[in-house]
C-alpha cells in the first residue's frame, strides 16, 4: 500500500474555489485526478437526508476532505509526473499576481519536486486559444458557457478531452452556486445535502459556505451541528475578520450556552484584549432582543448594564429602542418612555413612536400617545392597533377630555376606516357625555355591526335609544340580549328616571348589599379569628395578634392578619365608623388575592361615606376590582364629584361628571334635577327645561319647581 500525506488545513485553504465577487476564484483546488477523499469525509443519511459529518469539528478531516498525493518514488526509473500549468499560464497572461501565487502554492503542494518558472509573469502562453477562452469564461463566472464550450469542442474534436483541473474547478463552482442559491431561497435541507456531497467546499478557504451550512443546521433544529460548524471555523481558520464574523453569524441562531462555547475560543492580543470584545456588546443586545420576544426570559444584569453603557456612550438609536422595548415588556413604562424618547429624538421612526405611544398609554397619557403615533398610523397593522388603543383610551378619559376639532375628526376617520368596535363604543360614550344621544346611538350601532357580541355597545345602544325616545328600537335590543346580559333588559324610562344610587351612600342599596354579602362570607374567618392566638416576629421579639371579637371597642388593625383586618373593616362600616374602617381596610391591603381586592373595594366605600372622594378614588386603584364593583364605585365617585362641583358653583364640571356617570348607570331623578339647575345656572334654558320636564313626569316636586325657575329666568331676560 502506498503511503499517503495528508495536506494540512492551511494547504487545503489555498485550494478553495470562490465565485467572482464572492471570493470563489481567489484560489484553485487540486484537480480531482490528484486527490482522493479521506475516510472521515464519508456522509451518512439522517432522517432520509444526507449530511456532512460535523460531530468532531476540531478534526479537519471531518469537515473538509483530506487530500492525498503520491510520494515520489525513490527509483529514477519512473518519470516525473506531468504538471498541468494551464491555469498558471492563464493567470500569468492576465497579470493576476494574487491568483498566480495561489496557483503556484497549489502546484508545489501537489508536486513537491516541481519548480515554478523563475519569472511567472514571463511564462510564454502556448497556443490553445479555445482552452484559454474556456478559462476566461470560467474566471468570469460563466459556468454554463464553459460547459457549452467544452461540449462544442468535443463535438468538433472527438479525441479532445478538457483538462481534469478545469472539470474539477467547474464542478465545484457549480456545486457552490447551487448551495448558495438554496441558501438564499431558505431551502435548508438542500444546503445540507449539497454541502455533504461536496465536502471539498467546506474549508477555511470559503468560510461563507461553512456559515451557510451552519445556518441551515440551525434552521432545521440541529443546533449542535450548527455550533460544531462554527467551532470548526474558530478551531481551524486564522483570518481575524472571519473569526469575528463567525460569532456575529452565530449570534441570532444559537442559544446562549452554545455562544459561550464559541466565545471560549477567543484569542488574546499582546495587549490582553480579546478578539471578540466588540462582539460581546452584540451578544448583550441579542439577550435583550430575546427577552423582548419572550417576557419570561431573565436577562443577566451584566447584559442590561452593557447595553445601557453602549446606549449612553455609542449614541445608537437602536440601543435606546432595545432598552425601551425591554422595559415595556417588564411593565416599567417610566423607564420605557425615557429610552423611547431618546431614540425618537435621534431618529423619529415608526418603531420609536410606537414604543413611546405604548409607554404613554401605560402611563395614562393617551392624548400624548395619539399625537405621537398619528403620523405613523398606516405603517403596519400592529402600529394601527396601538394608535386605535390610544384613541379609545383618550375618548374614555373621565371627565371627557377637551379635544380639538382636528384631533376628534382624525380619530373618527381612523376608527371608521379600521371598523374598530372598541374605539367606536368609546366614541358612543363620548358623544353621549356631550348630550349628543343621536350621534352616540349611531356609534353604538356601528360598534355592534362590527362586533355583534359586544355587550357594552349593545347596552349603550339600548340606553341611548330610550333617551331619544326610540322605545321600539330599545326593546329590540333588549329582546336580543335576554339571557345574555343582566343590565340590558332592565333599561327603561323608569330606570333612567329613578334608578337609585343614593347620594351619601357608598354606592346605593346594591353596593351595600354586596358589602353585606362579603361580610357574611367572611363570618367564618371572623369566628376563627376570635379564638386564634398566633404570633409574628418583629424586630425586638414576638407579639401576639389581637383577637377580633366584634368592633365595639377600639382595635389597632395593624396588629391583625389581613383577613382579620378585612372583617374588622366591614364591622366598622356596619357601625357607621367609616374613618376607622378605612384604616382597617388599609391593613387588609397587605393581604393577597380576594382579601386584597375586597380591602380596596371596602376602603373606597369607607372614604366615600366619609365624604373623601379623592381618597376613595385612590383606594379603588390599589387592587383590581371586578367589573360590577368597579362600576358601582365609579358611579358613586362621579356622583360625589358632581355634587361637590355643584355646591362650589362649578356647573360645567357638574354636567361633565353627570354625563360620565350616565354612561355607566341610569340617571336617577334627583340627579336629573341637579343637572337641570346646572343648565339653568349656565343659562342653557332649553336644556334645563327639557331635563326638568322629564323629571317632573315622575311627580318630583323639585323638578316642577325647576320648571317654574326656568320660566322666571326667561321672563327676566326678556324684561
Question: What tags apply to this protein structure?
Answer:
single chain; 719 residues; mainly alpha; Serine Threonine Protein Phosphatase 5, Tetratricopeptide repeat; two-stranded antiparallel sheet; elongated; disordered N terminus
Summarize the model shown.
The protein has 719 residues and is mainly α. The protein contains 36 helices and 5 strands. 62% of the residues lie in helices and 2% in strands.
What does it look like?
The model is unreliable at 1-75 and 494-549 (pLDDT under 50). The chain is built from 36 helices and 5 strands. Helix 9 packs parallel to helix 11 (240-250). The longest helix is centred in the N-terminal third of the chain and has 21 residues, at 164-184. A hairpin with a 2-residue loop joins strand 4 (535-538) and strand 5 (541-544). The protein is mostly helical. Among the domains are: 1-126 and 163-238, no CATH class; 508-534 and 546-718, Serine Threonine Protein Phosphatase 5, Tetratricopeptide repeat (Alpha Horseshoe).
Amino acid at each position: 500500500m502506498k503511503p499517503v500525506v495528508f495536506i494540512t488545513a492551511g494547504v487545503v485553504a489555498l485550494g478553495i474555489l470562490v465565485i467572482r465577487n464572492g471570493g470563489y476564484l481567489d484560489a484553485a483546488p487540486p484537480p480531482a485526478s490528484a486527490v482522493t477523499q479521506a475516510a472521515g469525509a464519508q456522509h451518512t443519511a439522517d432522517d432520509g437526508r444526507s449530511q456532512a459529518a460535523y460531530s468532531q469539528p476540531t478534526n479537519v478531516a471531518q469537515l473538509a476532505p483530506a487530500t492525498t498525493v503520491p510520494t515520489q518514488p525513490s527509483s529514477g526509473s519512473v518519470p516525473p509526473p506531468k504538471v498541468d500549468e494551464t491555469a498558471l499560464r492563464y493567470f500569468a497572461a492576465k497579470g493576476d499576481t494574487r491568483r498566480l501565487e495561489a496557483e503556484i502554492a497549489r502546484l508545489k503542494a501537489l508536486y513537491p519536486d516541481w519548480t515554478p518558472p523563475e519569472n511567472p509573469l514571463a511564462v510564454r502562453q502556448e497556443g490553445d486559444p479555445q482552452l484559454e477562452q474556456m478559462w476566461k469564461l470560467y474566471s468570469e463566472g460563466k459556468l454554463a458557457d464553459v460547459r457549452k464550450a467544452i461540449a462544442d469542442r468535443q463535438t468538433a474534436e472527438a479525441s479532445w478531452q478538457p483538462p481534469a483541473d478545469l472539470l474539477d474547478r467547474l464542478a465545484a463552482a457549480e456545486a457552490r452556486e447551487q448551495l448558495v442559491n438554496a441558501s438564499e431561497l431558505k431551502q435548508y435541507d438542500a444546503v445540507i445535502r449539497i454541502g455533504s456531497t461536496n465536502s471539498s467546499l467546506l474549508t477555511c478557504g470559503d468560510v461563507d459556505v461553512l456559515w451557510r451550512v451552519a445556518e441551515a443546521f440551525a434552521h432545521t433544529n440541529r443546533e449542535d451541528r450548527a455550533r460544531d460548524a462554527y467551532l470548526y471555523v474558530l478551531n481551524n481558520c486564522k483570518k481575524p475578520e472571519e473569526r469575528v464574523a463567525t460569532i456575529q453569524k452565530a449570534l441570532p441562531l444559537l442559544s446562549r450556552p452554545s455562544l459561550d462555547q464559541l466565545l471560549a475560543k477567543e484569542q488574546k492580543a499582546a495587549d490582553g484584549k480579546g478578539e471578540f470584545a466588540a462582539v460581546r456588546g452584540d451578544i448583550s443586545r441579542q439577550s435583550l432582543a430575546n427577552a423582548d420576544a419572550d417576557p419570561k426570559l431573565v436577562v443577566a444584569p451584566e447584559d442590561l448594564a452593557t447595553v445601557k453603557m453602549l446606549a449612553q456612550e455609542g449614541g445608537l438609536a437602536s440601543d435606546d429602542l432595545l432598552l425601551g422595548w425591554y422595559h415595556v415588556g417588564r411593565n416599567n413604562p417610566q423607564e420605557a418612555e425615557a429610552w423611547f424618547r431618546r431614540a425618537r429624538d435621534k431618529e423619529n421612526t415608526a418603531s420609536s413612536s410606537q414604543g413611546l405611544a405604548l409607554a404613554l398609554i401605560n402611563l395614562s397619557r393617551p392624548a400624548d400617545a395619539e399625537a405621537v403615533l398619528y403620523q405613523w398610523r398606516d405603517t403596519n397593522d400592529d402600529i394601527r392597533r396601538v394608535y386605535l388603543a390610544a384613541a379609545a383610551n383618550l375618548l374614555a378619559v373621565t371627565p371627557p377630555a377637551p379635544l380639538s376639532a382636528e384631533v376628534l375628526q382624525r380619530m373618527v376617520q381612523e376608527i371608521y376606516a379600521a371598523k374598530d368596535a372598541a374605539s367606536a363604543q368609546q366614541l358612543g360614550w363620548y358623544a353621549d357625555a356631550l348630550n349628543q344621544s343621536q350621534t352616540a346611538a349611531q356609534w353604538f350601532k356601528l360598534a355592534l355591526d362590527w362586533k355583534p357580541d359586544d355587550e357594552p355597545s349593545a347596552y349603550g345602544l339600548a340606553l341611548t335609544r330610550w333617551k331619544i325616545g326610540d322605545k321600539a328600537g330599545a326593546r329590540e335590543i333588549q329582546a336580543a340580549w335576554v339571557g345574555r346580559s343582566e343590565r340590558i333588559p332592565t333599561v327603561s324610562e323608569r330606570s333612567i328616571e329613578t334608578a337609585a344610587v343614593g347620594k351619601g351612600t357608598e354606592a346605593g342599596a346594591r353596593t351595600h348589599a354586596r358589602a353585606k354579602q362579603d361580610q357574611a362570607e367572611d363570618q367564618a374567618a371572623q369566628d376563627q379569628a376570635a379564638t386564634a392566638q398566633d404570633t409574628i416576629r418583629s424586630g425586638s421579639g414576638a407579639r401576639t395578634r389581637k383577637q377580633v371579637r366584634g368592633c365595639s371597642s377600639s382595635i389597632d388593625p395593624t396588629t391583625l392578619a389581613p383577613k382579620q383586618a378585612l372583617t374588622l373593616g366591614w364591622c366598622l362600616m356596619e357601625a357607621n365608623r367609616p374613618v376607622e374602617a378605612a384604616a382597617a381596610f388599609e391593613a387588609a391591603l397587605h393581604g393577597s388575592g380576594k382579601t386584597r381586592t375586597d380591602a380596596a373595594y371596602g376602603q373606597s366605600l369607607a372614604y366615600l361615606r366619609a365624604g373623601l372622594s379623592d381618597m376613595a378614588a385612590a383606594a379603588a386603584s390599589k387592587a383590581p376590582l371586578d367589573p360590577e364593583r368597579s362600576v358601582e364605585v365609579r358611579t358613586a365617585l362621579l356622583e360625589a364629584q358632581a355634587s361637590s362641583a355643584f355646591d362650589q358653583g362649578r356647573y360645567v364640571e357638574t354636567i361633565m361628571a353627570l354625563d360620565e356617570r350616565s354612561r355607566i348607570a341610569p340617571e336617577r331623578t334627583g340627579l336629573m334635577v341637579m343637572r337641570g339647575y346646572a343648565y339653568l345656572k349656565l343659562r342653557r334654558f332649553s336644556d334645563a327645561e327639557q331635563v326638568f320636564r322629564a323629571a317632573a313626569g315622575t311627580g318630583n316636586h323639585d323638578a316642577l319647581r325647576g320648571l317654574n325657575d326656568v320660566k322666571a329666568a326667561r321672563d327676566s331676560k326678556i324684561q
